Amino acid sequence: MKKLFPTFVLCLLACVANASPVTGLLERIDPGASNKFKIELQRADTDFFELDQQQEKVVVRGNNYVSIATGINWYLKYYAGIHLSWNGMTAELPDILPPVPQKERHETTLKYRYDLNYCTFSYSMAFWDWKRWEQEIDWMALHGINLPLALVGADAVWRNVLLKLGYTKEEANGFVAGPAFQAWWLMNNLEGWGGPNSDQWYEDRIVLQKKILKRMREFGIQPVMPGYSGMVPHNAKEKLGLNVTDPGLWNGFHRPAFLQPTDKSFQKIAALYYKEMNKLFGKADYYCMDPFHEGGSVEGVDLDAAGQAILQAMKRNNPDAVWVIQAWGANPRAEMIKNIPRGDMLVLDLYSESRPQWGDPQSTWLRKNGFNGHEWVYCMLLNYGGNVGLHGKMAHVINEYYKAKESRFGTTLCGVGMTMEGIENNPVMYELVCELPWRDKRFDKDEWLAGYLKARYGKPDEHVLEAWTLLSNTIYNCPAESTQQGTHESIFCARPSLNAYQVSTWSEMSDYYRPMDIIRAAGILLESADKFRGNNNFEYDLVDIVRQAVAEKGRLVYPVVASAFKSGDKSLFDAASRRFLHLILLQDKLLATRSEFKLGHWIKQARALGHTPEEKNHYEWNARVQVTTWGNRIAADDGGLRDYAHKEWNGLLRDFYHMRWKTYFNELSARLHDGTLPSIDFYALEEAWTLRHDTYSPDPEGNVVDVAKEVYKAIHHDLGIK
Fold this sequence. Notes:
Elements lengths: L4 H14 L2 H9 L7 E5 L5 E8 L2 E6 L2 H14 L25 E5 L3 E4 L4 H4 L6 H13 L4 E2 L5 H11 L4 H7 L6 H5 L12 H21 L4 E3 L4 E2 L3 H5 L3 E2 L3 E2 L2 E2 L2 E3 L5 H17 L4 E3 L14 H15 L4 E6 L6 H4 L7 E5 L25 E6 L13 H13 L6 E6 L8 H9 L9 H13 L4 H11 L42 H12 L9 H32 L2 H22 L7 H10 L4 H14 L6 H6 L13 H19 L11 H9 L13 H11 L8
């Protein structure tokens, strides 16, 4: 029997290896792919992956499954010319993989690779099912992510807590936000907007979160789950007799109340919260708590006591847990974190590429002492509102990362993160950030870009490189000092006026590149379009870049419309306004060729989660409102939230943005003779659209390359306008 034992152990280890999450990952990429790799787990003091060769099999070694998945992704990109991205997570691998001629090893001392923002769960993930979540967890593993935010199902926890505190089901539902707005509810910004949710919704969230957490834990990914930070319903004083403070309004919405840490009920409610969380989803080693987010009033709050109360509640639940907190604006308040023991808090420097708080003396959000000795993560925010648009600080992100690493604050830098409000955009920037931890020396942006393009499209091409180099030096070269919130917004999506510029209220955008450079880059890329017909990554990028070119053309035509009206030139006004409206429809036609850029895709996701016609309609309403008015009339107009989550999407361009501009231009045309401006109730127009249930197809329409050529040719036709 003793002689058989080693054989039994070897067989058991082989079975475990075959059943590893990496095997499943490879099979989802391409059935049969797992037979082409040899996976080896090895112990190490730091995270690493190693590429090697053994006969016809590619060997990928690593100290854990995430490291191994990162190595697989590195191999696929830089050896096989296969780039897995949000626009495509499957591929056809060759029968015999390209060999690894000599062993290649990468390691990192940064223990955290963080992913997601509260807002991502609403702007991108609000209506995801398990199939989409499975793809995202695969993406995370392939990109080295080991610490993602995990908010799904928090609403079910809260409902259970409120019911046990004596709230009725209707009252609990009045507190929890709807699917498209839960991020801001969890950040203590609002209550109930977008709700109430059905019983089935909560049941579905529980099932989904359990699947998400199970898969994450199989990979060894540590979920960051929502902890308790003192949030209670605004009526908790009257309902429960609690000692609370009123944080005030957030863009027209009343915030939830904050339970004073000195109230004896703080620890009781926190314990109840964690008990319900553990019952549904188990304990976590990392919890996110962000009290007083975005200017919530702290008047009358002992911030040091608040920090200690939040920490103590978390530690009672799990003594080994770490508090993960966002650095955004004045948060985290210095008084709240000063007495938190080092090692018990991890700070996400949420906007490191533009407003770093880690101690960079050139930052407008400078903290001279950084985070007072707490460990922190260098994060790129990049995207706001899930807006569509090319944007980035490519070279700056690289340089600032190494600058931070080499500074005196580098001793507490322990990770890299992505904290975008919306994903499935600008894949080049996220790929860049994910590689930073695995490159121990500064590297050249142009050299990296050439390698990225070869990997993304499967082969090098001179026109592709020329176009992307131009983009990297213009629209992806936003100035270091710029604090604009994401992409240079499309004038098509702006609420109409004669002085339209930015779309969202807080954009802070300014002209930092020449529109004609982007139009030229699109033309250069089109020169190689026929060579890449059928190439998924190329066709996605082609649509995105030509879409940007059309938006730039719109920004050039718009001033002609405004000037023509102001000068009373009716002929020019009619021609220019027609041209502007035609550009919107051209962009709409272009974007119809890819499902990623279709309103129908977003609405299909929303309606698919409903079990009854009433649920389907409710989720569709959430989906429509979020990308347009965002809130009710007060929040949309007075609060400034309207169009914050605007999208250049097929369907939305045609039926919403085109409708607004056409209405406005018709009114202007009628008033040209006296020069007076129209007074249009835009919110009434917008709200009417959110209440509709007309059908939008989620399926691609037309050939990408042919339509892109047609649209690009059309934007050079000026109807006499220069």
